[in-house]
Amino acid sequence: MKEAARQQIARLGAIDIEPARPAPTAPALALLLALDAWSEPEDLFAGLGRDADARAALARTLVSLIDAGVIVVAETPEAAQDERFAEFWRWGAGAAHWFFGQKNPRFLQPEELEGVLAAQLAAHPAPPLFVRHDERRDRIDLPPPTDDAFLQIARARRSSRAFDPGAAVPAGVVADCLHAGLAIVGVFDGSVAGEGELPLAMAPSGGGRHPYEGFLLARRVDGLEPGVYHYGSAEHSLVPVDGDGALDVAPLLGDQAWFADAAAVIFLVAHFERTASKYTHPNALRVLLIEAGHIGQNVLLRACAHGLAATPTGALADRRVEAALALDPVRQAAVYAIGLGRRAAPSDPSGVRATRASGPARRGG
Ligand SMILES: Cc1cc2nc3c(=O)[nH]c(=O)nc-3n(C[C@H](O)[C@H](O)[C@H](O)COP(=O)(O)O)c2cc1C
Question: Which domain holds residue 214?
Answer without folding.
Answer: 149-341
